[in-house]
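PROTEIN ENTRY
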Amino acid sequence: MTSRTLDGGNSLPESFRRKLKKSGGVSIPASATMQGYVADMEAKNPHMANLLLQRYVQEFTLFYEKLETLKKGPRRARLLHSLADKMVERASKESPYVPSCKKGCSFCCRIHATMVDSEAELIVDYLHVHDIKLSRSRCEKQSGLDDAGHVTKIPYEDRACPLLDEASGECRVYPVRPVQCRKYLVVSPAKDCDIRVKDKAAILVGRDVEALTAASMALETPRKLVDDGIASQLLKRIPKNDPLWTE
């Protein structure tokens, strides 16, 4: 998740602003997708854009406090995923556009994706239970790429997510995949997602799931306001001599 910030200002409850200050931050993170959505609306209807931001702040606060009821770890990740799935399902049903995402389409598995610590713990547990092997060399090539633009600095063939089965185009940890992957719904033709040709994919933006994602990030990485890429998280959590690594 490429992070920018939205200043919550006085629309944040005082008690919550104090809590954020204790955590080392006073700004609310928002994805580049959300920032672009707000910017477009601001140009067309500033009043509606302001209402959108107010609602976003309210939802951010609600989700932050809900996630905070659980300690960092797999249980929090499962709650995060459960909430996100319900939001994405509702948005998909309510949208006049039909998502083009389908099993085996993996263009989006070659762009930068991140996960918070709780999700990383859940995924590493899943990898061990199912004995899913990983390429350490691929993770090392992708580590340190902390925003969407940096991933273009490595060859396309090295950009595939370490969790992707390239032969089938399927995610090998699909049941526990990060919220970043769960909320990414494309409503334009799949070929528009191929960054080798063009990057004009139309993405279904859900304000609530964006606020939820931001809340999880602010809760677990409040000081840097950006979570780690998948490859970096795997390298950090799986010892070098672990049999999960293939090379």
Q: What stands out?
A: Residues 46-68 form the longest helix (23 residues). The chain has one domain: 3-237.
